[in-house]
Write a structure and sequence with these properties.
single chain; D-Maltodextrin-Binding Protein, domain 2; Alpha-Beta Plaits; five-stranded mixed β-sheet
């Protein structure tokens, strides 16, 4: 039974929102200040599972998080797509004219940059978490400061939303993965997988691997590369594939296990709805 879920950030963060929507019931949260700390918590059995952001429709893949899955031997067992709506919030009784500083995560500030052109008097200050800034404003009763965070943060910390959905690109979606130490025991219903493989450093090796994926009727949805630190000139490829038939998947998997100099499954699970 899943009891404790690790998240990056504090209660009211987008990770917390995913926990609420994905699990559908209250879970004990383990708040981690970094993704590395989150991965360690799962690897060491301090939490049963974790929710980890892995990709954003604007910013792209969070590649270091794939590396953490690899380093700590963690498995993706599910995914969830969350529409990210940035809101500016402050203590009640204030307007934008009263706000001198806005604190939030650098990505949130970047995604809302156009909005603040209308308010040149406001200083934008980077921090490491969105909801944590909302919490600080409430706990320290800070007037003249606002935070950018989700509606859930405003509700939890009792802040007034001054403007809703201030992000420049309104269709802003982040993909989160659900991770744990072991892979799923039941694999009949899997429709998506994440792999890491290393190929011989010779002409056509990647093309051959991609042909296997295509010939076995798998859909390649992502491919990223990272240098193999121990072997300069070699690259590890992180790949996401989707499929309709598990027999096609296992055929492609068995072929690539033979072709690759190293092959590792980072997750086999059911696709989430985007």
């Amino acid at each position: 039974m899943i009891k404790k879920i690790a998240i990056q950030g504090v209660k009211g963060s987008f990770h917390d929102q995913v926990v609420s929507e994905y699990y559908g019931s209250e879970k004990t949260l383990l708040e981690c200040s970094t993704f590395d700390g989150l991965a360690q918590a799962v690897a060491n059995g301090i939490s049963d599972q974790a929710v980890m952001a892995i990709e954003n429709s604007i910013a792209g893949t969070i590649l270091p998080n794939y590396a953490l899955l690899d380093e700590y031997e963690l498995m993706i067992v599910g995914e969830y797509f969350l529409s990210i709506q940035h809101n500016i919030m402050a203590l009640s009784g204030q307007s934008m004219a009263d706000i001198e500083e806005v604190h939030s995560h650098p990505m949130a500030l970047l995604q809302c940059k156009k909005f603040f052109r209308e308010f040149p008097h406001i200083k934008l200050v980077e921090s490491h978490d969105t909801a944590e800034e909302a919490m600080k404003i409430k706990h320290n009763n800070i007037k003249g400061r606002a935070a950018i965070a989700g509606v859930r943060a405003a509700e939890i910390y009792g802040l007034q939303i001054l403007h809703k959905s201030i992000q420049t690109i309104k269709n802003n979606v982040t993909r989160f993965v659900i991770i744990q130490k072991q892979k799923l025991s039941q694999q009949e219903n899997i429709t998506k997988a994440a792999w890491k493989f290393v190929l011989d450093h010779k002409r056509g090796s990647l093309a051959t691997a991609l042909n296997v994926i295509s010939d076995c009727n798998l859909n390649l949805t992502k491919i990223q590369s990272l240098p193999v630190i121990e072997t300069p000139g070699k690259y590890a490829f992180f790949v996401d594939v989707t499929f309709d038939q598990t027999k096609d998947y296992f055929k492609a998997k068995s072929l690539l296990e033979i072709m690759a100099t190293s092959f590792k499954v980072l997750g086999e699970y059911q696709s989430g709805k985007s």
